[in-house]
Amino acid sequence: xxxxxxxxxxxxxVQQYGEEIxxxxxxxxxAQRAVTLRANPLKxxxxxARLALEAQGIEVSPVSWYDDAMIxxxxxxxxxxxxxxxxxxxVYLQSLSSMIPPVLLGAKPxxxxxxxxxxxxxxxxxxxxxTGNRAMITACEMNKIRADRLRYNVQRQGASRVTVMxxxxxSLDDLFSFDRILLDAPCSGSGTVQLGNPRSKGQFNKANLDxxxxxxxxxxxxxxxxxxxxxxxxxxxxxxxAQENENIxxxxxxxxxxxxxxxxxxxxxxxxxxPVTIPGTLCVCPDELYEGFFVAKIRxxx
Length: 302
Hints:
Elements: H1 7-17, H2 19-30, E1 36-39, H3 46-55, E2 59-62, E3 69-73, H4 77-81, H5 84-87, E4 91-93, H6 96-105, E5 112-115, H7 122-130, E6 136-140, H8 144-156, E7 162-165, E8 178-184, H9 206-226, E9 227-237, H10 246-255, E10 258-261, E11 282-284, E12 293-300
Parallel strand pairs: 5-6, 5-8, 6-7, 8-9
Antiparallel strand pairs: 1-3, 1-4, 2-3, 9-12, 10-12, 11-12
Helix pairs in contact: 1-2, 6-7, 9-10
């Protein structure tokens, strides 16, 4: 495996996937990931966004599973952030993988939605856009600086029915009740490693992983207490490690009155996938377009 992959992470990948797939993941870590974004229909529809980009000589291509998503060709992030349409919130820079959980959440107008770990706001504002600002969204962030950044993005994106709470979602009163919940849980970031990028940092050791998985378990158990019976939630991480993904889901389902709902992945055939141990869940393999990501849909039984 590539010598730049942290030793403990490399060991876990080989143990879980075997040498061949672990090498495929490592190749994804080496790739320079494309710039991707989504049009924000609360400020600019996809046609307006495309024309604004093309007017500046920036070529984009579509994404099969999400009409508002675009892959940028021949330009990096600074070329996008310099544009007027970006400044007014008409487009939002976001990785393709992180767009998947809100799409699969399937929130509908009129529903009460909770985003449990919301900053910096990409998924929160995406849910607002997908529901046409007609869902009532509560977005939690425990860190004050990150919560302020979340508020800023919510305002700029025109997500007018989002309530930002500077609070640890684990401390929410169980009297709260939601129709949909997105728990994009804090994780090791094992899916987002970019070799050669000094901003891509990870502390991959057993102590940190044990701490993270304990937090994930607590968050998911809390989510199921806040979810209305018969309703569905998404549990996701930017990790490719089973310890943070299937193992957490399996452990919590044994404690909670809940079940996995198989994801409808129609249109997602082009997304590079890794093997999973829970049928109907998704684990994205990192490559030049995608970060590693895990997604599971869970229903609280009635």
